[in-house]
Amino acid sequence: MAEEIIEAIERYGLSKRNRKRTLFSRIGVVGCGKEGSVIATTAALNGMEVVFLEPNEESIDNAYGRIEEKLDKKISNWGLTENEKKAILSRITGTSSYEDFSGCDFVIEAIRYTDQTGERRITHRKEVFKELERVLSVNAIIASNVTTVIVTDLASELEHPERCIGLHFLSNVPDSQIIEIVPGLNTTTETYEKVCKFAKLIKHDFIPVMESSGLVSVRLFLIQLNEACGILLEGISSVEDIDKVLTVGFGHRQGVFRTADQMGIEKIVRLLENLWDEYGSLKYKPSPILLRLFRAKHFGVSTNRGFYTYDNYGNIIK
Amino acid sequence: MKILVLNCGSSSVKYKLLDMESNEELGTGGVEKIGMKGSFLKHVRRDGQKVILKGEILEHQLAIEYILGVLTSQKHGCIESLEEINAVGHRVVHGGEKFNSSVLITDEVIQMIVECIDIAPLHNPPNLAGIYAINELLPDVPQVAVFDTAFHQTMPDYAFMYGIPYSLYTKYGIRRYGFHGTSHRYVSKRACEFLGLDYTNTKMITAHIGNGASVCAIENGKSVDTSMGFTPVEGLMMGTRSGDIDLGVVTFLMEKEMIGSAYVSTLFNKHSGVLGVSGVSSDMRDIENAIAGGNDRARLALDMYEYRIKKYIGSYTAALGGVEVLVFTGGVGENQTGTRQKVCDSLAFMGVKIDAELNAKSRGKEVLLSTPDSTVKVVVIPTDEEFMIAADTLGIIERL
């Protein structure tokens, strides 16, 4: 007897119905940097097939490295097993061609801030949206990982702006499972509801947020950080002690300076400037301390120096 | 009378189609990796030929559709039309306190299984997915639910309660439920048939030991205690589960390792047990090889595994006030001769004695291991949960 007969399963179905793909079985991520890799990992962890786009082989390899690092960290914290890691990695594919997004019913743009200026150019992101519209079916949802950029603006030149939506993954505190969902002016209720379903599928809480610069999370955080910098500047307290008040006294999982270092000072300065431009309120003017760190390229964990000093694994040395 | 037995897990569906008159397996197999890359259906034909069908299988309904498609296919199937299936029996993991036996599935029963999701969030939803799928695909075929917990519903309250505030029992249903009930029920009944004993008048201990493992004390055909509790992590040390542990360890580790409830659950369910102690594998064959190669931690893991089994059998002997039959079943219980020997040797003080030579060559088949002068009859009974599910299903639909 032959060892095993191997065939394709398709012709053994009972009928042609129910052949529809389940929603979000395959999703895409454009840009697999700090935030993109969190999104890709989270989706794959929850059983979805993920395609991510990076410009070249080297950056694809780097992205795989970031994803693996996250999974290894979970393993060392007892949250995952080696076998599960293998299964998760097998669901993630890197590409440098937009064509590979065909068949995705949901693609999230998460291109990163350029290292030098901390800027994400709107024109570039609009191009991404257009490329996506070219390869995706009309029902597919195009989302942008937004904080201060307005999704309506990004979607304005598309043929189907109704399927565009903004999302904000709060990726700075590990395992913080909440998303801000930001419908644009043209976003349909259907698109919004589908994205809520996506959030549930990846086991995240979500809140709807009106389209606005800084949303809820970024505004709250940046103001607190700016104020903390003010306290520091006035010599009232130290970095460590201010963080201690927040963690011990207010039950935050980590302090505001630690979080800032993880987010990246270059990104924070840019975000504050965006908010200052948008709202014109002095409270958003980046504190001189932030600017000083920014100019010295002490961006935080990524450069081993920020408010704290770090080893190469992101642990605080002092 | 043909009965299809389905066992739906979170990403798998196992199935067996049984002809109840001839007691024959017509087709068996399973779908793996549902909703993931690389999903496939493995089917074993009546003639023993294995068939692998590869392709996208995104959800349970589709998996079951393919299973029905294969069973009725000309090429690999065993029935001509779906009308030949008289009933479907489902394994349902958690019946809570609502079910103490198998039941015909009605809308009301489905609602009650839904209500048990709170205490079995991982297991009951896929079981329900299977029920819904059959509702859709074979709407006129009666379905029966056979619960893993049902057999243990006869435990007395002093055995199933935890020593915590009673209000938590009334509020959340926190108590010991026990699992592997279908297996313990099958092997205990079958052991009595095999030995010619009266099931309703025998004190037995059944050890279902494998990757998951539990021991059950059975008095006159009723489960009076079992080692798994509110979840399957209590009791024996298992392949990757810790088994009994001081909960002070749990809170201590949560603080020291700075981990939350989800990670703690993974730690004690997936990183622990034989795998965690040995650092080698959760598979006993790998452990034996490692021991042969001089691996001390593999040795330790096996010692702990066996010691816990002995301890539970000893304590259940006390609970029952003596024991007449000891049954081994499950992957390890049926095949791991060394573990059986070790456990039985350590129970010599209570008169357990087995034929070492017979034990050493008995794998995966029904056999009486104890010597005539042993005070306890020791048997190996390969478990057959699917058969039990089919038998229950048959019993229920015959009364319709």
Based on the model shown, name its key terms.
heterodimer; A: 318 residues; alpha/beta; Rossmann fold; N-(1-d-carboxylethyl)-l-norvaline Dehydrogenase, domain 2; eight-stranded mixed sheet; 14% strand; B: 400 residues; Nucleotidyltransferase, domain 5; 2 domains; six-stranded mixed sheet; 39% helix; 20% strand; globular
Describe the protein in words:
- The complex is a heterodimer of chains A (318) and B (400).
- Chain A has 318 residues and is an alpha/beta fold.
- Chain A is 42% helix and 14% strand.
- Chain A has 2 domains: 26-208, NAD(P)-binding Rossmann-like Domain (Rossmann fold, 3-Layer(aba) Sandwich), CATH 3.40.50; 217-303, Orthogonal Bundle (N-(1-d-carboxylethyl)-l-norvaline Dehydrogenase, domain 2).
- Chain A has 11 helices and 9 strands.
- Chain A has an 8-stranded mixed β-sheet with strand order 4-3-2-5-6-7-8-9, sandwiched between helices.
- Residues 16-20 of chain A have low confidence and may be disordered.
- Chain B is of the alpha/beta class and 400 residues long.
- Helices cover 39% and strands 20% of the residues of chain B.
- Chain B has helices at 60-71, 107-115, 124-137, 157-160, 166-172, 181-195, 247-256, 261-270, 273-278, 284-292, 296-320, 330-335, 337-346, 356-361, 385-398; strands at 2-8, 13-19, 24-32, 40-44, 50-54, 85-92, 103-104, 143-147, 203-209, 213-219, 222-226, 325-329, 367-368, 377-380.
- In chain B, a hairpin with a 7-residue loop joins strand 3 (24-32) and strand 4.
- In chain B, helix 6 (181-195) crosses helix 15 (385-398).
- The longest helix of chain B is centred in the last third of the chain and has 25 residues, at 296-320.
- The interface between A and B is medium-sized, with 29 and 41 residues.
- Strand 1 (4-8) of chain A pairs parallel with strand 5 of chain B.
